[in-house]
Structure formats: C-alpha cells, structure tokens
Specification:
Elements lengths: L6 H18 L3 H12 L2 H23 L2 H7 L1 H28 L13 H14 L3 H13 L6 H26 L2 H9 L1 H21 L2
Length: 212
C-alpha cells in the first residue's frame, strides 16, 4: 500500500515525466524558439521563451480553475478558441513561406519577430496560447496526478514545475541555436529552413483546425 506521505511526491514525479515527454516533442513552440534564435538576437530568443512560459502558466492555472471542464460543457467556446489559434498558426506559416519565396526578413503584422524583444515575446505568448488543447491536457494531467483535494501548495508546485521545465528546455534550445556552428549552417540554408518552418506552422494550424 502506498504511503500517504509519499503521494504528493509521486504526483510531482509523475508530472515531471509526462510533461517532459510533451515539452521535448517538436511543435510550434519549438519552431518559434529556433526561428528567432537563428535569425535574431539572444535577448529576443529568450523573450520568446518568456512568452512561452507565460502562456504555459496561464493554461496550467486556468486548467486548475476548471477551464478544461468549461470547454467540455461549452463546446462552442472551445471550438472558437481552437479556430482562432489555427488561423494564427496558418497565418504565421504563410508569412514565413512568403518570406522564403521573396528572400526577405520575416515580419508578421502586430506579432513581428523582426521588431525587437516585445515582438518576440508576443510571438512566444500567442504561439503557446494558440492551442486550446493545452487546457484539456493540463486538466487531464492534473486530474490523474494530483490527489483529490490537493492542497494549494501542491497545486502551486505543479504549476511551477511545468513552467520551469518550459523555461529550462526552450532556454537551452534558444542558447544552442545561437551557437556559431548552427548560425553558419542556418545562413547557408536559411531560405529552405524558413520555408520548412512555414510549412510546419501551417500544417500544425490545419491539424488543429481539423482535429476538433
């Protein structure tokens, strides 16, 4: 029989394991981090990471507050957020594809990655917030890991863990992509890489739109 005193720590370790698998899996967050790290300054790359961290914090805390259950009971709200997120990802993808075709710098109106730290932060935040399935994931994650009536401190630790893992992983990715070797390779294949990134962003958006 499991020692009740160990239950909170079992929950913590389970969250770490499950969340780690999802975080390291390449997706829109990874692409946004890599693109800015390769084309802009280190500060802007880290601001993308800050935006991703804030988005994760919002989804995680909202899920603990019952947003996932709200999405289940109000399907129209979930689908509205999903379609908006899908449109955003497709829009970024098309912008990158057009940039690759024109061999120009990337500038997404209102969410530019070419206009300083604020634009990079917005890119990270909106990219992370564009997937409403995060609410469902966090709701499920916390439901199966946190014991019923989990104390506030344990909920706070759970949110802190998922945010910290986002900061550490994408921070490492951003710094690695700033290496001289990678930037040299990126410059040699910049047009192809930009086109590939655009295609993947658009594909993620289409998948989000079609998988309700």
């Amino acid at each position: 029989m499991t020692d009740p005193a160990l239950s909170p720590w079992i929950a913590v370790f389970t969250i770490v394991g499950l969340w780690a698998v999802l975080v390291v899996t390449p997706g829109p967050n990874f692409l946004a981090t890599v693109h800015v790290a390769a084309t802009r300054s280190r500060r802007e790359a880290l601001m993308v990471v800050a935006g991703l961290a804030l988005g994760t914090f919002i989804w995680a805390t909202a899920s603990l507050a019952g947003l996932g259950l709200m999405f289940q009971s109000a399907a129209w709200l979930y689908h509205t957020v999903r379609i908006i997120g899908a449109i955003y990802l497709i829009f970024v993808g098309i912008t990158l594809l057009r940039s690759a075709a024109r061999r120009s710098s990337v500038s997404v109106p209102g969410i530019s990655v070419a206009k300083g730290p604020r634009g990079a932060f917005r890119l990270g935040l909106i990219t992370d917030m564009s997937n409403p399935k995060a609410a469902a994931f966090f709701t499920s994650l916390f439901a199966v890991t946190l014991p019923p009536g989990a104390p506030f401190w344990l909920q706070a630790v759970a949110v802190g863990i998922v945010v910290a893992m986002v900061v550490v992983w994408y921070g490492l990715v951003a710094l690695a992509m700033r290496s001289t070797l990678f930037r040299t390779l990126y410059r040699r294949g910049q047009r192809a890489i930009t086109a590939l990134s655009g295609a993947l962003f658009a594909a993620f958006g289409i998948r989000l739109a079609s998988n309700g």
